[in-house]
């Protein structure tokens, strides 16, 4: 009986000592395999986005003041690089930077993608400018891991336009592609068809697919005015709109639609009749043409940035242009 | 009756048990109790040691020598392995080469090192060494133009670059968190380097408290071994009954004795009346539903629920004195099933009281009916 007790006692003592001695540093911790899927998180925090954007806008402001176009490539890319270069060229010639180039630093909303690969985009919507110009939609794009975000596109939102809803920055939105399905049309188709609508106006076979917007209305007014003037001196004019391949950024909205920002280049050829010279049509064109010798034919190249909202299929809605930017980048006499 | 018989028997057996401690009691008090006491002391001493001398250090530093790859990446979760607060130090053997440390998300780091071999820090191999593993990052190396240096990339939440030795502190706050972050260390052209992670523990593991608890348990066990467990088993089992017989001071014992006395009285009175009672009447009374509800009443007379009463049956049972006697008989008959704790006289008094209450409640219900009819 006493032997049994002493055995039990010895066992208890041994266990007690093991607990005591083993307790010097505790058990070596192991790395727990993470359960959260990394693809569902946004690429940047709102704070990181602000830091990146502020840095870009600060540098851009400096280049604006210096009219420095040589180093714009370090902070700008895509259509915005071409547009800002032209804007600064015009500003250098006229001594005045257009009001439309202003980009407010305060944000109304930022849409951060959850894309794990590259390129990655961020859509940021600013507040209105100090002089009550409309909000700007900024597209920041990171082309590869070893590059930084650059300002890829800026579209001035049309006044009174209703923007689609996006997930908040801390959740992140899914980045779309130009082949997204389940929509009224794919983003690539939408851009091509909108280019057709810009070119042919109400005569485009796609006109009914797109809601009326400021860019479309103003372009058709301008075309009509120039057409009338040209007809007086027996001249002709032709404007062609061509989407630029791969110059497209897509973000999925929370209601299932896509917000698409794309570059559409256009060429406007004006031929004056009866031996007359074809002159630049605007101050910007004039500044870009500079001291060039005018001939009977003038060809101007424009870079257009359009922001289109494509609703999901069978929603009974049209594709709506929500913002745009348009800038001549080259004026030449042929 | 059987219980009553065992008491004198036990009283007779009592003098036969030896006076003085048994062998069992000697073992329990002489061996088991001291061992348990020693264990209790050992546990408490170990607890104190764990809380003082052997207290785990707040600082945990683990390092590893890496060579042969430009990049070192910690696995997700390694930075926060011991605590959210961690200091990462990277030191190259070549003091002139540039060392960079960046904190970012695992996929950003994977994108940065795509297509290049690197060294993974997978965890701790012991308390002072990091476990490492050679690996090759998936994807193809970024060949694009306008690449930026590691410290200039937008992707990192924190970054630092120094010649020779670089270190970076993560504070473990919401904006400076190590939970979902990994560290990317770029040694540039250096041939070999040392990476160390230095955690500052905010909450230390508490090994003393379980030992104190075990010590307390051993103390209780020692006391029990010296008292209850040292008793002879048969004595321990019949302790309560023995206490009643010996002293009769315990309240439980008092009640038991009172119950026996009353039971004996009830049995005696039942035997007297059983011979004179009419069997037919008894059966007739037991068939009445009223009688059935009244049977428990004579055992627990304090519970009176006027709402649940069968008034018709009550009326019948109160029809005449002979019926009342029948009910009494029926109640007494039930004594054969359960022990009565009420004397015959008390029962009579109760029924007299009940009859009065019924007359009152009947008149009350009559007036209620009338007023309801008037409405």
UniProtKB/TrEMBL annotation, chain A:
InterPro entries: DUF8094. Residues 40-321 form the DUF8094 domain. Pfam families: DUF8094 (PF26366). This is DUF8094 domain-containing protein. It comes from Bifidobacterium moukalabense DSM 27321.
UniProtKB/TrEMBL annotation, chain B:
The chain crosses the membrane at residues 31-54, 211-231. Keywords: Membrane, Transmembrane, Transmembrane helix. Residues 276-290 have a biased composition (Basic residues). Residues 264-275 have a biased composition (Basic and acidic residues). This is Conserved hypothetical membrane spanning protein. It comes from the Bacteria. It comes from Bifidobacterium moukalabense DSM 27321. Residues 1-20, 264-302, 315-339, 356-375 are annotated as: Disordered.
């Amino acid at each position: 009986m006493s032997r049994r007790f002493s055995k039990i006692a010895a066992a208890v003592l041994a266990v007690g000592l093991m607990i005591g001695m083993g307790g010097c540093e505790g058990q070596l911790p192991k790395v727990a395999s993470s359960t959260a899927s990394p693809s569902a998180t946004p690429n940047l925090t709102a704070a990181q986005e602000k830091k990146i954007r502020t840095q870009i806008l600060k540098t851009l402001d400096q280049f604006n003041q210096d009219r420095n176009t040589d180093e714009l490539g370090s902070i700008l890319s895509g259509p915005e690089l071409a547009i800002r270069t032209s804007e600064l060229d015009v500003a250098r010639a006229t001594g005045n930077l257009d009001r439309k180039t202003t980009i407010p630093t305060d944000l109304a909303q930022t849409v951060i993608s959850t894309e794990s690969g590259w390129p990655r985009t961020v859509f940021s919507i600013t507040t209105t400018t100090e002089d009550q110009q409309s909000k700007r939609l900024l597209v920041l794009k990171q082309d590869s891991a070893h590059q930084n975000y650059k300002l890829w596109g800026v579209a001035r939102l049309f006044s009174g336009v209703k923007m689609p809803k996006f997930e908040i920055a801390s959740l992140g939105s899914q980045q779309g592609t130009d082949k997204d399905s389940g929509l009224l049309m794919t983003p690539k188709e939408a851009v091509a068809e909108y280019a057709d609508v810009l070119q042919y106006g109400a005569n485009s076979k796609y006109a009914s697919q797109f809601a009326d917007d400021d860019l479309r209305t103003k372009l058709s007014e301008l075309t009509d005015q120039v057409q009338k003037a040209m007809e007086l001196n027996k001249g002709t004019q032709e404007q062609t709109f061509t989407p630029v391949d791969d110059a497209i950024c897509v973000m999925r909205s929370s209601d299932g639609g896509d917000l698409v920002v794309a570059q559409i280049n256009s060429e406007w050829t004006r031929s004056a009749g009866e031996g007359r010279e074809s002159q630049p049509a605007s101050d910007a064109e004039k500044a870009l043409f500079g001291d060039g010798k005018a001939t009977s034919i003038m060809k101007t190249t424009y870079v257009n940035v359009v922001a289109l909202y494509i609703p999901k299929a069978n929603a009974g809605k049209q594709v709506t242009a929500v913002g745009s930017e348009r800038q001549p980048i080259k004026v030449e006499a042929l | 009756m059987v219980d009553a018989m065992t008491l004198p028997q036990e009283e007779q057996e009592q003098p036969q048990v030896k006076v003085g401690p048994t062998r069992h009691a000697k073992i329990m008090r002489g061996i088991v109790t001291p061992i348990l006491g020693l264990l209790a002391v050992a546990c408490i001493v170990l607890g104190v040691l764990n809380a003082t001398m052997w207290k785990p250090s707040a600082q945990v530093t683990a390092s590893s020598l890496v060579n042969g790859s430009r990049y070192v990446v910690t696995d997700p979760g390694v930075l926060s392995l011991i605590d959210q607060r961690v200091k990462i130090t990277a030191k190259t053997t070549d003091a002139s080469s540039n060392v960079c440390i960046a904190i970012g998300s695992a996929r950003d780091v994977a994108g940065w090192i795509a297509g290049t071999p690197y060294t993974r820090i997978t965890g701790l191999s012991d308390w002072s060494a990091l476990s490492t593993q050679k690996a090759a990052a998936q994807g193809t190396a970024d060949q694009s133009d306008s690449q930026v240096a590691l410290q200039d990339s937008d992707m990192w939440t924190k970054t630092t670059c120094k010649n020779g030795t670089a270190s970076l502190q993560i504070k473990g706050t919401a904006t400076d968190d190590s939970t979902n972050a990994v560290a990317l260390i770029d040694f540039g052209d250096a041939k070999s380097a040392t990476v160390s992670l230095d955690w500052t523990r905010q909450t230390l593991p508490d090994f003393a408290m379980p030992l104190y608890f075990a010590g307390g348990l051993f103390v209780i066990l020692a006391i029990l071994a010296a008292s209850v467990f040292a008793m002879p088993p048969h004595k321990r089992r019949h302790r309560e009954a023995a206490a009643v017989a010996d002293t009769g001071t315990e309240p439980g014992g008092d009640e038991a004795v009172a119950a026996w006395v009353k039971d004996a009285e009830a049995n005696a009175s039942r035997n007297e009346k059983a011979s004179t009672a009419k069997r037919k009447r008894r059966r007739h009374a037991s068939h009445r539903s009223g009688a059935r509800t009244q049977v428990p009443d004579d055992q627990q007379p304090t519970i009176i629920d006027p709402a649940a009463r069968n008034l018709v049956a009550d009326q019948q049972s109160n029809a005449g004195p002979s019926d009342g006697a029948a009910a009494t008989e029926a109640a007494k008959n039930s004594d054969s099933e359960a022990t009565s704790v009420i004397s015959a006289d008390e029962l009579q008094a109760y029924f007299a009281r009940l009859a009065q209450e019924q007359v009152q409640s009947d008149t009350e219900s009559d007036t209620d009916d009338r007023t309801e009819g008037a409405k």
